[in-house]
Design brief:
Elements: H1 2-20, E1 34-37, E2 70-78, E3 86-97, E4 108-109, E5 121-128, E6 133-135, E7 148-150, E8 156-161, E9 191-193, E10 196-198, E11 213-216, E12 218-220, E13 223-231, E14 244-255, E15 261-263, E16 279-281, E17 289-295, E18 308-309, E19 315-322, E20 332-342, E21 351-355, E22 359-360, E23 372-379
Parallel strand pairs: 1-11, 13-23
Antiparallel strand pairs: 2-3, 2-5, 3-4, 5-9, 5-10, 6-7, 7-15, 8-19, 9-12, 13-19, 14-17, 14-18, 14-20, 15-16, 20-21, 20-22
Length: 405
């Protein structure tokens, strides 16, 4: 009897708790700070179609820059209600892209994770790739002093050249850190992101409010230099007609570049270089560089490197990353070209090798950050013409007289 009453009492107690008390789970909202890099697979990637050795100059065959897939992040937390009010939570922290990550909103990872503080606001800075930038002042109280410095930036880096097509090779001078053709992925684009500010509160932490990630947009501190060749308008070749021109050598000389750069003003690279020069040279101007844009190796017997038959359409022979010109110095760009004119398939004279003068490109005097410069080399041989200006009159000679009987 006692046992039955105990069971009834226990049942009543459970029913009473379930009907009278309400339990609610409260989420801690510990959301990790995540990052996205806009230069991955987007137009801000200055080496699209080239860093992977593509000769088309179009879209990349991969989804990443091949210069390390990394960025460095600086970040400060501001909280006026607690002490300390300023805390640096990222100090040149390396953040790496990992394509194998299948969960979450971003494939960028770092360790250990930091988490959003709902009561605090934040500022984030980023550069890419890692290992080449330093922040010259990390003052917590005066963010106008926070500037980046990039040292030992190669003043000229080749991205691709036609000479490397189909497995060809070329000797690159010491000032360039990259190979050619399929090895052009050794070149590096130097990028600085716009400063991202995130206010306090769950709705504003992370400028991407959908996933609370920090989305960076990068700009280039380098310029891009693309060299094209074609025949002039007066030398258009149609079908297989003669004469036609083959390019054998093309050299471009560039002067007025430095290899160490500082930000002049705090913040990020301006995506419109005409509004102000935010980077300045911190080293002496380097000497003139000779860029071998095209060189047809006559010793090749398997035709892996062939002379380039010119047309009246642009054909890209080389592209480079070039450090911006110092603020007080203009660049000097000079061009020299060697080519062969083919006159006929057979005959006593069928071809002729020509070497041009060294010409200064008067309208290309600056390499500004975040800009692409094109040099179109139009080849037009100066034709040898003949004309009859006059026919000389007869000159009076001596007069002879003889009488014949």
């Amino acid at each position: 009897m006692k046992k039955s009453l105990f069971i009834i009492a226990a049942t009543a107690l459970v029913v009473g708790c379930a009907s009278n008390d309400t339990f609610k789970d409260i989420e801690s909202q510990n959301i990790a700070i995540g990052f996205n890099g806009a230069f991955v697979g987007n137009i801000t990637k200055g080496n699209a179609g080239e860093m992977n050795g593509s000769m088309t100059g179009g879209t990349s065959t991969g989804t990443l820059c091949t210069d390390g897939n990394t960025m460095e992040v600086w970040g400060w937390k501001f909280n006026n209600n607690t002490d300390p009010k300023y805390t640096q939570i990222f100090d040149n922290t390396v953040v790496t892209y990992d394509a194998s990550i299948s969960t979450g909103s971003t494939k960028w990872k770092y360790s250990p994770l930091r988490y959003w503080d709902r009561a605090a606001s934040y500022k984030f800075y980023a550069v890419a790739p890692d290992g080449v930038f330093t922040m010259t002042n990390e003052s917590l109280t005066d963010e106008t002093l926070r500037k980046f410095k990039a040292t030992n930036v190669p003043d000229v880096q080749i991205l691709q050249d036609n000479n490397g097509k189909n497995g060809g090779t070329q000797t690159i001078a010491a000032y360039s850190t990259a190979g050619t053709g399929q090895q052009a992925s050794l070149a590096k684009d130097y990028l600085v992101a716009g400063v991202v500010s995130c206010a306090a509160g769950s709705s504003t932490q992370g400028n991407n409010t959908t996933d609370h990630d920090v989305d960076f947009i990068f700009n280039h501190i380098l310029s891009k230099f693309v060299v094209n060749v074609l025949t002039s308008d007066n030398f258009n070749r149609t079908n297989n007609s003669y004469p036609y021109i083959e390019l054998t050598k093309l050299f471009v000389k560039v002067a007025g570049q430095a290899d160490t750069y500082n930000q002049k003003t705090a913040g990020s690279v301006d995506n419109n270089p005409t509004t102000g020069d935010v980077w300045s040279a911190a080293s002496a101007v380097s000497a003139e560089k000779t860029l071998t844009c095209f060189y047809a190796d006559a010793s090749k017997t398997d035709n892996t490197i062939s002379k380039l038959t010119l047309t009246n359409s642009n054909q890209q022979v080389a592209s480079y990353f070039v450090a911006p010109s110092p603020a007080t110095t203009n660049s000097t760009v000079k061009v020299q070209v060697e080519y062969i004119i083919h006159y006929a398939a057979t005959g006593d004279i069928t071809e002729e090798t020509c070497l041009s003068d060294v010409l200064t490109v008067s309208n290309l005097t600056r390499f500004d950050q975040n800009t692409v410069n094109y040099l179109n080399v139009k080849i037009e041989p100066q034709a040898i013409y003949f004309d009859v200006q006059s026919v000389a009159g007869w000159s009076t000679g001596t007069t002879g007289t003889i009488d014949i009987e």
